[in-house]
Amino acid sequence: MHDPNVIVGFEGSEDAAVYKLSDDLGIIQTVDFFTPIVDDPYMFGQIAVANALSDVYAMGGKPITAMNLVCFPVKTLGLAMLREILRGGIDKLSESGTALVGGHSVEDNEPKYGLSVTGVIHPGKVITNRGAKIGDVLILTKPLGTGIVNTAIKAGLASDEAIKQVSMVMSTLNRNASVAMQKIGVHACTDITGFGLLGHLKEMLGSHEFTIAIRSDVVPMFPDVVEYAGMGLVPGGTKRNRDFCQDLVAASSDVGPLMLDILCDPQTSGGLLIAVSREKGDGLLQELQENGVPSASIIGEITTETKRRIAIE
Amino acid sequence: MIMEKVIDARGLSCPQPVLMTLNKIKSLKKGELIIKVDTETSKENVSRAAESQGWKVADLISEGSEYTITIKKD
User: Fold this and answer.
1) Residues A261-310: pLDDT tens digits?
2) Which of A25, A107, A216, A306 could form a disulfide with A211 if both were Cys (CB 3.0 to 4.6 A apart)?
3) What are φ and ψ of residue A104, in 5° steps?
4) Are the beta carbons of A221 and A262 closer than 8 angstroms?
5) Inter-chain residue contact B18 with A239, CB threshold 8 Å
6) Residue B1, in any domain of the structure
7) Is A277 helix (H, G, I), strand (E, B) or coil?
8) Is the ipTM, as predicted for this complex, more than 0.95?
9) How confident is the model at residue B1 (pLDDT cuts 50, 70, 90)?
10) How many Cβ pairs closer than 8 A exist between chain A and B?
């Protein structure tokens, strides 16, 4: 059934849906949940919330309510751990100004936590991943490499500093970045998730006739991530992402396989990828850096179409 | 006694095959080691893990989705 009030649905590879209620009000709906990625249950709860809210922020919306989704082996892991996960969730929700209004839990062998989130947005102001224009610059707001660092954590080989940094970044809301881009005015935005940076660039290309040029030397990434990738601590999703984009990518000879893996690294609670006009690019960058988004960097630009439509140098 | 120098990491997902390889490399120090994996990701990761420790991939046989990787260090 085609409902004309569904402004954003399945079609555009968006992670959240927008439904128009009236000319000046739409609701955003999104759901996200996953298995623990860090050992600290309180941190895991915070990350799950930052991750679930991210789709709303990427569209330029405001989250208003959320419901918990919980799968947990109470008998083996105990209620105290579950309470810590939920406490992390509640604290992050209150930081974001989102009301927790309910939830559902089931017994499961492996813990999982996430949320269903409802947000509001003006139907005329929805920012999607389609809308970038030739001449735009691309800004990424968080460092890449959560998938690789998380694999290193699973292997017990991650440094304390890497664990600390990746946890801090994954639990950071994309709210400030979203507020900044709405203030300045942008053409397109998406949040980086399991598809990795290159996967999202492919979505951003859509059927547009342009090329995205990325400068890999200025892409923000976690400090130890190159070392971990070199040790073979690359998650399975990376290869799927690489295969998904391969036909479109032209990488210059000094972009090695480790760098390509990092650009394809599946992200958890990744940053926003924003296309903004060149004239506004520096202004947005300054706005981001002054408002708690220190890693924000201009990583590339939209150029006229070339044969391979994702050019990496 | 002949030390077992084959790691069968088929059916295991990353980082398990890498960890098994790194641990074995640490105890062997040099020589030859064979690792069996069944995903392309594991194949790439195990090869990289070996090379990061100064070992070389001497041989790689693929049969369907299974890979037998021989690594060496003199």
Assistant:
1) 999 999 999 999 999 999 999 999 999 999 999 999 999 999 999 999 99
2) A306
3) -150, 140
4) yes
5) no
6) no
7) coil
8) no
9) very low
10) 47
